[in-house]
Amino acid sequence: MDFAKVLRMVASFFEEQRVLYAVAGAFGLHAYGLTRATLDLDFVVDAEVQPKLVTFLESLGYKTLYLSSGYSNHSHADPVMGRLDFIYIAGETSRLLFDSAQRRLLLEGVSIPVPKPEHLAAMKIQAMKNDPSRTFQEMSDIQFLLALPGVDREEIKRYFEKQGMVDRYDEIQRQLGNAEPGL
After folding, report:
1. Domain boundaries along the sequence of the chain
2. Buried b (16+ CB within 10 A) or exposed e, 160-182
3. Class of 3-115 per CATH?
4. pTM of the model
């Protein structure tokens, strides 16, 4: 996949539509210093753009693999265009995420917004909850995010609690050597 080409193309669409967006997944992590292999691009975007976005992607030859109010996945027959995944958010969640996102990712002259580490962790916790087979990779990514200087560990803990997965948070804390008293 030509990540730079596709990133420019999708970012241009969002900018033209004046829609809030950010990269997530591997590129979101990369903006904070964790580089790992990936085969797709992940975006978080304001839900209002979904119909226009799907139409735009299909006009470029992307096939919609899955579509719901919260997620969509798109794949192109041309390997250069690759696979795109979108997380759609609205309301207070959208406001909180996009108000704190920063243009941290620079790829071939294109500056792309990235959610703060706590919000990347929240998306990874949700992904783990939705698909337990992703637990190993997501836990590793969350551990990296929790170790970043200045990260709000209590905020991330609340996201684990909200999903009924505080035991996973405690597991990471023990691995980091920061277990809370009584654990």
Report:
1. 3-115, 118-176
2. beebebeebbebbbeeeeeeeee
3. alpha beta
4. 0.88
Q: Take residue 54 and report the two structure tokens written for it.
A: 């799907």
CB-based contacts of 58-65 (< 8 A; 24+ apart in sequence): 60/9
Q: Which two tokens stand for residue 27?
A: 């590129």
Q: Which of 172, 180, 171, 123 is nearest to 146 (CA)?
A: 172
pLDDT per residue as tens digits for the range 138-170: 999 999 999 999 999 999 999 999 999 999 998
Q: Report yes or no: 40 and 83 within 8 Å, Cβ to Cβ.
A: yes
User: Do residues 46 and 20 make contact, with C-beta atoms less than 8 angstroms apart?
Assistant: yes
> With contact defined as beta carbons under 8 Å apart, do 61 and 76 qualify?
yes
Amino acid present at 118 = E
Contact 179, 170 (CB under 8 A): yes
Inter-residue contact 61 to 78 (CB < 8 Å): yes
Percent of the chain with pLDDT over 70: 97
**Residue bearing tokens 């799907």:** 54
d(CA 181, CA 79): 50
Query: How many of the other CB atoms lie within 10 Å of CB of 2?
Result: 13
What is the C-alpha to C-alpha distance for residues 146 and 155, in angstroms, rounded to an integer?
A: 10
